Amino acid sequence: QVQLVESGGGLVQAGGSLRLSCAASGLAFSNYAVGWFRQASGKEREFVAAVNGSGGNTVYADSVKGRFTISKDNAKNTVYLQMNSLKPEDTAVYYCAAAPRFDESSTWYPYWGQGTQVTVSS
User: Fold this and answer.
1) Of 5, 20, 22, 115, which sits with the fewest C-beta atoms within 10 Å of its C-beta?
2) CB-based contacts of 58: which residues, under 8 Å, 6+ apart?
3) For 21-31, how does the pLDDT look when each residue is reduced to its tens digit (9 = 90+)?
């Protein structure tokens, strides 16, 4: 079955960096877009970034543009989210998800990981 496993979350001070990883199995990884979404306590889940199947196209939420970088390694079945200049408002549970369509809407993503907590202290 399809599995997505996130790792790399943790506690970091404002201005610091973290790199999240999403390891996938059970799907033809190069045929799937992968997105990162996040959900802060008491708020709705929101889109963060996505990369298409080949890894050649990316899209970002305005709130993270210029600070976060998404990349895809099809040889390793892994997607990364490099997060720099972190802010307290980036605190959330971060989820990776896979979809046969490159899109920002979570509606198109049938496969989800369990999430990893990112906490940014001020």
Assistant:
1) 5
2) 49, 50, 51, 52, 70
3) 999 999 999 99
**What residues contact 109, with CB distance under 8 A and at least 6 apart?**
35, 37, 97, 98, 99, 103
Q: What is the pLDDT of residue 25?
A: 97
Q: What is the dihedral of CA 29, 96, 7, 38, to 10 degrees?
A: 170
Query: Per-residue pLDDT tens for 14-53?
Result: 999 999 999 999 999 999 999 999 999 999 999 999 999 9
